[in-house]
Specification:
Helices cover 71% and strands 0% of the residues.
């Protein structure tokens, strides 16, 4: 059973952190329940399991998803929808969702974890009140009440000692905003130390750590403590790049530029940082930040925007490529194609330099992604991919791919090439390409900064899909187990659901009736969480119709 593993994981991590049963379960469940969960004698509810894992600093969905009924699924969907509306400051729509969330919570009031669900509702109410600048005293009282649902003895003056979950951190951030600026700085420093001390899962820390650092740097700016701003921004920029958390990166760069400017520095670095912040915000489609950064740069820093916009040709190219990816993912294929034509006319120079060849290859990859999305014929896409490969590897020899050191572009291209061959009926050729590329990465890209874990996981995902279709289930199981551990080691989960579903299929076809059903349900739910809805439905249909899996929602 999947929860036997989860129970042992909870127990192992709790002991490693030196926590008692009482400290871990406080406000979540009683001690006897936790003891039975750790021993595998009891299956916890969705909300209790997730909250225990989060308190230990883990993202529970990486290990197990247990959706017990439609009402629970509806509640979780409403939480996610409300969170998205609040983040976008669509407050009236969010208010309606919160009302629906309260109704959904009442339907589940007799289920285990009632205090946790109530806290989720109150967290949304706290954020809405913060967005509309409600009465500070009322906001503070509401936030403390919400926190004490799961932390009965919560004390704002001692937050460094608590084991916070992401939802509790969200509530604390709304609470902090009710205090004066010096108190805010002190609390954010405590929160920073808390996250560095307790969050062991890097992706789970990343959900809130950059927000806390950004808020801390912003408050320090308000107090004129610019040296500390620079220190926090250096940490934030490094962390964003390392963990691919690019939503806050423009904020850190702009605050760093402002701190340098405030300290009397007049350097090229300030102009570069402001330009990067503006372009990064455009890529993130945060146009409020674009306007804010632009006006502040012109009015306060006396920087000229047409100078900023001409800075660093490479940055312009990267920003344009990110825009194309966003348009393609949103289904705006005509606009994406227009953007490609714009780049080819303005940012690509007719030269044969290595940098320009890589740029042209990148553009060809983006064009292929559009062609794939609109279901262009495989023959046309084969021509596009072959042309793209030849920009950096003029003589393609498919028999020697395992002897080549690959980069991100070449991994994406050979994955596309293999999938095209598979689509055209030449599956063995496709499998051979993917095996060779996988071997090359394992043999040559041995350093952590060369592994390219996301692209490697994509290769394994495609390979195990084709091996399943070829009936080589033992090979699939070996590769999937290896890849799942790889994803956990390198903290990359984009293709984990694909790999887990492929493993479920292989288990089914080898007659393992004990484990495949749970894996398939987990994989489909995770695909939905990644917003890969079309592929999730495809997997769900196959699991239900071919494998006989019963989905609880």
């Amino acid at each position: 059973m999947a929860f036997l593993y989860a129970g042992s994981l909870i127990k192992e991590q709790r002991k490693q952190m030196g926590l008692t049963l009482e400290k871990l379960c406080d406000g979540i469940c009683d001690i006897s329940s936790l003891r039975r969960i750790e021993s595998g004698q009891r299956t916890p509810s969705t909300f209790v399991f997730i909250r225990l894992m989060e308190r230990l600093g883990f993202d529970a969905t990486k290990y197990f998803v247990n959706i017990t009924d439609k009402a629970e699924m509806n509640f979780i969907d409403l939480v996610n929808e409300t969170t998205a509306l609040l983040k976008a400051h669509k407050n009236e729509e969010a208010r309606d969702k919160i009302n629906a969330l309260e109704s959904a919570e009442r339907l589940l009031s007799k289920n285990e974890g009632a205090n946790i669900r109530k806290q989720m509702v109150m967290s949304a109410q706290c954020t809405l009140s913060m967005n509309i600048r409600g009465n500070k005293e009322q906001r503070r009282a509401k936030a403390v009440e919400a926190l004490r649902l799961t932390i009965p003895n919560f004390d704002i003056g001692n937050i460094i000692e608590y084991l916070f979950t992401p939802i509790e951190l969200s509530i604390i951030i709304t609470l902090v905003n009710t205090y004066e600026i010096d108190t805010k700085v002190d609390i954010y420093y405590q929160l920073k130390s808390n996250m560095e001390r307790y969050f062991f899962d890097e992706s789970e820390r990343a959900k809130k750590y950059t927000l806390i650092l950004s808020n801390l740097a912003n408050q320090l700016t308000g107090t004129g403590r610019y040296k500390e701003v620079l220190e926090i921004c250096a940490i934030g920029i490094s962390y964003c790049i390392k963990n691919d958390k690019l939503d806050k990166l423009p904020n850190f760069k702009f605050m760093k530029a402002n701190a340098l400017f405030a300290e009397g520095n007049v350097t090229q670095e300030i102009e570069n940082l402001v330009a990067e912040a503006i372009y990064g915000s455009k890529c993130n489609e945060n146009f409020v930040a674009v306007e804010l950064f632009s006006s502040f740069a012109e009015e306060e820093m006396r920087l000229t925007l047409n100078v900023l916009q001409s800075k660093d040709d490479e940055r312009n190219f990267t920003a344009a490529c990110n825009t194309i990816r966003l348009l393609t993912n949103a289904g705006e294929y005509e606009q994406a194609t227009e953007k490609i034509n714009e780049i080819e006319s303005s940012l690509l120079q007719p030269s044969a330099t290595d940098n320009n060849r890589i740029r042209r290859q990148t553009i060809d990859i983006l064009a292929h992604d559009i062609a794939l999305s609109v279901n262009d014929a495989p023959e046309k896409r084969l021509e596009m991919v072959t042309k793209a490969i030849e920009h950096t590897m003029p003589a393609i020899d498919e028999t020697r791919l395992s002897l080549v050191r690959h980069n991100t572009n070449s991994l994406l291209l050979y994955n596309a090439l293999a999938n095209i061959y598979n689509e055209m009926g030449d599956r063995e050729r496709a499998i051979n390409i993917l095996r060779q590329v996988m071997t090359a990465v394992e043999d040559f890209n041995t350093k952590d900064d060369e592994i390219m874990p996301r692209e490697y996981a994509l290769i394994v995902s495609s390979l195990t899909t084709m091996l399943n279709l070829s009936g080589r289930y033992d090979d699939v199981l070996l590769l999937c187990d290896k890849a799942i551990q790889f994803c956990i080691n390198y903290d990359t989960y984009r293709y984990m659901p694909h790999i887990r579903f492929n493993k479920a299929c292989a288990l089914f076809h080898t007659g393992d009736t004990k484990h495949y059903s749970g894996l398939a349900v987990e994989a489909v739910y995770s695909l939905k969480a990644n917003e890969e809805h079309i592929y999730a439905e495809h997997c769900k249909d196959y699991a239900r119709d071919v494998m006989g899996v019963n989905f609880p929602y």
